Amino acid sequence: MSKADPSSGRGGLLGMRLWLMGHLDDHFRDILSGAAITFGLKIMGMGLMFAFNVLVARLLGVANTGLFFLALTLLQMAATVALWGLDNATLRFISGFAAKERC
């Protein structure tokens, strides 16, 4: 067994990563790296949102912060209802059209 083989118990996390990357095809490697980037950006976005919430709370005070977040929630609900599945329908029809063009 090689040193990077995860079943050998040696090599730690780096060894497992090297072993895994050596056994993945290029497409899966692209998907995995894209997922890692997306996950990192999502975590960073959560941190920025938390910092924004703290900033709004400190600048506006208790009553105005409540009103601000109530208005924000109502706008998000209205946007969800206004879409009414249009984003999903657009994706479905465009992909169907593209598939027909290839045939």
Briefly, what is this?
With 103 residues, this protein is mostly helical. The chain has 3 helices and no strands.
Describe, in plain words, how this protein is organized in 3D.
Helix content is 83%, strand content 0%. It has 103 residues and is mainly α. The longest helix is centred in the middle third of the chain and has 58 residues, at 26-83. The mean pLDDT is 84.
Write the layout of secondary structure elements.
Blueprint: H1 12-22, H2 26-83, H3 86-102
Keywords:
single chain; 103 residues; mainly alpha; 3 helices; flat
Note the quaternary state here: single chain
Which residues form runs of ≥5 with pLDDT under 50?
none
Instruction: Give the termini distance in whole angstroms.
Output: 49 Å
Helix and strand run: HHH
Give the C-alpha Rg.
Answer: 23 Å
Note the beta-strand portion.
under 5%
Please summarize the sheet with the most strands: none
Q: Count the strands?
A: 0
Number of helices: 3
**How confident overall, as mean pLDDT?**
84
The helix content is over 70%
> Based on helices, strands and strand pairing, what is the structural class?
mainly alpha
Rough outline: flat
